[in-house]
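Example 3.2
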Amino acid sequence: QVQLVESGGGLVQAGGSLRLSCAASGRTFSIYFSKYAMGWFRQAPGKEREFVAAISRSGDRLHYADSVKGRFTISRDNAKNTVYLQMNPLKPEDTAVYYCAADVAQSESRKWHDYDYWGQGTQVSVSS
């Protein structure tokens, strides 16, 4: 069974920080985690799901949406089957449900439909 579980969301004031984690579980998925590119997406109420960041399987290539570049950092620890998203400083417009996703084809795509496995999401709310 493939499972991605996000954690670390919450309510913060503008200018604050959060660190999201996404842990992979399931025997097969855990074995192959290091072979997958990973991405973070977000979806605000009434809006489409949008790309936030992606990381290559080895972590040597990073990609960011223009809206978060310089504020967010994606990283991964393949020994722990976990990918992270460090976010600071946060802005009210960052409020959304954040999802991590696995890209089997390693395309490091910015398109959500190129990803194969998804977590359930974690809420991030930023007050002004």
